Amino acid sequence: MTKQYAEMDWHAQARALQPDGRAYVDGARQPLKMHFTKHSPLDGRLLGEVSRGGAAEIDQAVCSARRAFEDGRWSRQAPTQRKRVLQRFAELLLEAREELALLESLDMGKPLRNALQVDLPASARCLAWYGEAIDKVYGEVAPTAAHALALITREPMGVIGCVVPWNYPLIMACWKLGPALATGNSVVLKPSEKSSYTALRLAELAVEAGLPPGVLNVVPGLGHEAGEALALHPDVDAIGFTGSTRVGRCMLEYAARSNLKRVYNELGGKSAFLVFDDHADPAAAARTAAASLFFNQGESCNAPSRVMVQASIADAFTEQLVESARGFRAEHGLDWSAPMGALVDEAQLRSVEGYIAAGAHEGARLLLGGQRCQQGSGGSYMQATVFDQVHNHMRIAREEIFGPVISVLRFETEAEAVAMANDSPYGLQAAVWSHDINRAHRVSRALRAGTVHVNQYDEDDITVPFGGVKQSGNGRDKSLHALDKYTELKTTWIQIDD
After folding, report:
1. For the residues of 46-87, what is the DSSP string, one character each?
2. CA–CA dist 234, 255 (Å, integer)
3. Which secondary structure element, helix H or strand E, spans residue 358, and what is its range?
4. How far is residue 247's CA from residue 318's CA, in Å, rounded to a whole number?
């Protein structure tokens, strides 16, 4: 299959594609009213017009979701029935993989190969996994006295508002939809205005799979219009949000201003990647750091953007890191061999340029990249960029860049490394590279992060929770723990008479 895909003319496929940007509410596409024009960051081509939803469109979608929830067309279906629909939904994603991968690449700039080989399988597995899991989630009987029976059950919350980012549009949507739909909720999904097309197509596939109309509604729009209206809506019971820490704060404020809805934020990161001199193969660590950072053009919240290396091996490590980074060239995302694609738009490209300028101004040493590339293509491309001699007070070490920029920081002792790693407002992920088992355990326990990788960075599975601490958010996506976000615990007391 890989050989077949590598030989396909994806540029021709893209020219034949006609993306539909109309909102999807109550089982049907809605007429375009307000809209914005979307161009591809790969080459500037016009993709089409996308619905610019506002408060009225959000209200229509929430009312549709509420009706569907209250009449029980989905919420009162048996878990085995919901399982069948979600598994069929997953199958349809894989059947439409070529179309969805093209939409993903054209819309936000990632290499089509990654969309096809990583994003699509992961999204389908997520939906299928939650479908398979839901009829295996049991309630509890509390150990009360003999005269009472206390049942503890999980119930769907009602209407869930899901707001997802532009960097992994399909995966992030499925991380929310899988547990929210499996537990019987209705959903209003607001994709990023920078990457709306796959979310809209998902809604059609869901209904084709058997999801009743109204259970899943998708309203594109700007964050300060559609996103704010969804978070403020008094008939939304919870918000599942993935995005920036700045907007995450707004989500909490909107909840306080409206109905105190629950808000589950998965926010930014500035992940520390610690390499100690007792690791047997520092070159492997360098290759892993480069591959993890430059995947998806560095537009990943968990990217290991702060590489902290023990001073005794720092020069050799940095040399290998630069060599590995050279292999990540920014090329047209529809070219099958492209290691990196385009940044999502010109504004993001300018933002990354600003951080690179700040790093140089504050005294970091630029070893590689730092310039726009593929100029004249009409796209938004940045070279893989490596900084050395970075200190933790610099902006490039403190703020989330969301681009192909990696920084090397040096430390002398284990205590210094841990202190430096934890000296961050974020706490999403981290890594420890050491062949001393005691050190690996000590440092892993000391790091304030939702996930700590030891001697690797790329392991991932739907069975493992994902999320962070501090300003990286709360709650967890993936695994059975995600079901907690979209259900209410109910206690039912039953009196037993003699």
Report:
1. EEEEEE---HHHHHHHHHHHHHHHHTTTTTTS-HHHHHHHHH
2. 9
3. helix 346-361
4. 35
**Cα of 375 vs its chain's centroid, Å:** 29
Cα 65–Cα 70–Cα 72 angle in degrees, nearest 5? 100
Burial 71-95 (b: 16+ CB within 10 A, else e): eebbbebeeeebbebbbbbbebbee
Give residue-wise pLDDT tens across range 131-187.
999 999 999 999 999 999 999 999 999 999 999 999 999 999 999 999 999 999 999
Question: Is there a contact between 278 and 312 (Cβ–Cβ < 8 Å)?
Answer: no
| Residue from 396, 427, 400 nearest 409 by CA | 396
Percent of the chain with pLDDT over 90: 98
SS3 249: helix
Q: Say how far apart CA 385 and CA 164 lie, in whole Å.
A: 27
**Quick one: pLDDT at residue 29?**
98
Residue 301 annotated in active site:
yes
User: Given a cut of 80, is residue 423 above it in pLDDT?
Assistant: yes
Q: For tokens 């559609």, what's the residue?
A: 226
Check if 57 is active-site. no
322-355 pLDDT, tens digit each: 999 999 999 999 999 999 999 999 999 999 999 9
Residue 395 CA neighbour count, 13 Å, CB half: 15
Q: What is the pLDDT of residue 426?
A: 98
> Strand pairing of 216-218 and 272-275?
unpaired
In the prediction, which pLDDT does 498 show? 80
**How many Å separate Cα 127 from the centre of its chain?**
15
To the question of pTM greater than 0.90 for the whole model, the response is: yes
Amino acid at 82: R
Active-site residue, from 63, 174, 250, 301: 301
Q: Which of 266, 299, 331, 400 is catalytic?
A: 266
Read off the pLDDT band of 2 (50, 70, 90): confident
In this predicted structure, what is the pLDDT of residue 11? Answer: 96
Residues 406, 364: contact at Cβ < 8 Å?
Answer: no
Of the candidates 235, 240, 263, the one whose C-alpha atom is nearest the C-alpha of residue 65 is 235
